Amino acid sequence: MGNILDIIKDTSLTYEQKVLSLAREAENSLNVLNISKEAQEYREEGIICDLFEGNAPYRPRYIVPDYEKFIKNGSEFLGLKPPKDIWEAINSLLILYKHVPSITSFPVYVGNIDTLLDSFIEDENEAYKAIKLFLTHIDRTLTDSFCHANIGPKDTKAGRLILKAERELQNSIPNITIKYSKDTSDNFALDAINTALVTAKPSFANHEIFSSEFGEYGIVSCYNGLNIGGGSYTLVRLNLADLAKKAENINDFINLVLPDAVKRMAGYMDERVGFLVNESGFFESSFLVREGLIVKDKFTAMFGMFGLAECVNHFIDSNSQEDRFGHGEYANELGLKIIAKLEEEVNKHNNPYCKVSGGKYLLHAQVGIDTDRGISPGCRIPIGEEPQIHQHLIQSAKFHKFFSSGIGDIFNFDSMAKKNPEFILDIIKGAFKENMRYFSLYSTDCDVIRITGYLVKKSEIEKLDRGEQVLRDTVALGLGSVKNNKILERKVRKHV
Q1: Please, what's the largest Cα pairwise distance for the chain?
Q2: What was the pLDDT predicted at 485?
Q3: Which domain does 338 fall in, by range?
Q4: Percent helix, strand and coil across the chain, each to the nearest 5
Q5: Does residue 379 fall inside a structural domain?
Q6: In a domain, 194, yes or no
Q7: Element of type H or E holding 480
Q8: Residue 28 Cα distances to 52, 56, 364, 466, angstroms
Q9: Domain tally for the chain?
Q10: Are 360 and 338 in contact (CB under 8 A)?
Q11: If residue 48 lies in a helix (H) or strand (E), which one and from where to where?
């Protein structure tokens, strides 16, 4: 036990060396966090869930390096000079990715890759070959679908080549988001939509909203907005569906049960953050800190939630769809009331290590995990109960203002939409005018599909279900979600 703790606290070890020295079982054999009796009670009941982060945090859950600084300066620790051509640029990035930790041990953010590579493009044919090899290398070595790249908002040669390559390769990794703004040309946006209808990426992020809140930001992991050069220490989530059952009625829930649960979970998050910052040695030992690629003061932490629909429907107590969350006016207003109260209670809490977010934890609509049976992600309408798309967008968009660190909806279009991508672009423009933060799409005939926030190939799910080996570890999560959460039964949006 003591030896394991010594390894975690040893500042002479790199992240990779720590990973080699520790097994998850060893980490979870420790009890280094001072978890309150009340928080532990809710952890055991599944109301507070730390998403398998481990008992002794020794790396932040999400890290968002400043790759632009890396391209400009190179790295003394890695012995890399600033790249001079596209081959050196992709080589340097691929080397650095191996040294960027996260909760999955793979980087959850690989940069705004179009702007990182665009200045190195001289010959487009050569650049296309380089970009295809770059993306293939990522898919085959960073075998975790929470790995996320960004492009946009401006149209670039590199951005176009990346989209072209993704249509050809149809890889599930990396996930991609296009930062969409008034500066994004319709042609570039349509190119992105055509790509998403083939390979379920990129998703669209409302750049005006994210940049107004974060300044320089990246979309990482599923759809998480975080500061460049920072990240998130932890993500813990609150199960509103099961929490609702603790209350006698809605007033009891709003006034007593929910505030009490926030205190329990915030205290637990404080323990995780405190150990990581003060005892793990991560920020003292990481070369990413020494070279200014990440800065501790740019880190925050994410207060997640899920199961709003089931929480609301518990209090509505109606089997009529017209009364339920996503449809009934009272149900939707009740959902907003609950989230507004959640925000109010979370903002009462202060953590001194979240300087970039003013000492506050950021609300996050967590996308769910494969074992969530009958509980919907974040604030989403349950699969199978989705209204018409215009109603869906208006209902959903009202919740997005609360969740700066991530919320989004997924729309499955029939294959005929490929003949008229302008139809989808009009939908996205309308959604963003309603202040929707994040919009994901794919087509019914895609092999690559969006599970909750991450991407998996249907063909690989089928292989794993037959007992065959697959390369990417997140396929197992996708298989569980398909079986438990009706992922393949999303409402198909018809082209009109």
Answers
A1: 68
A2: 78
A3: 32-59+232-400
A4: 50, 15, 40
A5: yes
A6: no
A7: helix 474-485
A8: 10, 7, 25, 31
A9: 1
A10: no
A11: strand 48-49
- Residue in 42, 184, 175 with CA at minimum distance from that of residue 104: 175
**Alpha helices of 298-364 — where are they, by DSSP H?**
308-316, 329-346
C-alpha 433: how far from its chain's center? 23
Residue 55: the pLDDT is: 92
pLDDT at residue 226 in the model: 98
Strand segments (E) across 125-193: 148-151, 175-180
Name the residue among 274, 291, 181 with its Cα closest to residue 229: 291
Give me the pLDDT at residue 150, please.
98
Phi and psi at 458, nearest 5°, equal -60, -35
- Residue 261 φ then ψ, to 5°: -65, -40
Euclidean distance between CA atoms 11 and 100, whole angstroms: 16
Question: Contact at 8 Å (CB) between 301 and 284?
Answer: no
Contact 64, 218 (CB under 8 A): yes
Ranges in the chain, pLDDT < 70: 1-2, 12-25, 473, 495-496
The two structure tokens encoding residue 205: 């992020």
Residue 258 belongs to a domain: yes
Q: What are phi and psi of 39, to 5 degrees?
A: -65, -40
Two tokens, residue 481: 């979600």
Q: How many residues does the chain have?
A: 496
Query: Which two three-digit tokens encode residue 457?
Result: 């190939």
pLDDT digits over 128-187, tens only? 999 999 999 999 989 888 999 999 999 999 999 999 999 999 999 999 999 999 999 999
pLDDT at 14: 52
Q: Give the whole-angstrom CA distance, residue 130 versus residue 114.
A: 13
Q: What is the pTM of this model?
A: 0.93
425 in any annotated domain: no
- In order of 67, 310, 312, 329, the CA distances from 316 in angstroms are 48, 10, 6, 11
Are 94 and 134 within 8 A, CB to CB? yes
- pLDDT reported for residue 463: 85
Helices (H), 215-257: 240-243, 250-252
pLDDT for 480: 80
Strands 492-493 and 409-413: parallel
The pLDDT of residue 13 = 54
